[in-house]
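SAMPLE LOG
Freezer: B-3
Tube label: C17
Construct: single chain, 172 aa
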Amino acid sequence: MKTEASTRERILNAAIQIASKNGIKALTQPKVAKQAGVTQSHLTYYFPRKADLLAAVLEASHQQVRHTPPVDIREALRYLESLILDANRMRFFLGAVVEAGEATELSKVLAAHAAALTTQTAGIFERQADDPAVQAFIDRIRGIGIRLLLEPKRGVRKKIDLAEIASECGLI
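STRUCTURE (predicted):
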């Protein structure tokens, strides 16, 4: 069992590295197998379909994100910025959303991720997860994350002030 767990972990780590660096489109079985040091048939033993691998990668990447609650709102906002405004993470998320259109299990993983992010964000502002202001805040910063991906690189980007956005949404 130890060998199976470590092989699966190697495959997941390789897939996370590839997806983080090059996006989900680069996440092919041959590339993942090569980077993990396994045969392609070995990879398909653990993950028969790309959707299975994507769901596992998404779950594993969330496990790598820190689970300790931030000490204060400033730290929490920096944490949210690192999750949502990071270009590689946003590319990965958007790629997973596109793939989820054809894979029910991936849709479930993404829905669980969205619910967890909403609950965590609501807790930061001492609100309930169903608070419309929390949803508005998350939607707005996700939109900013997407816009930042679409804008051509023009040197240093303007600093995004999440505290100001949270204030505009009525959270602080």
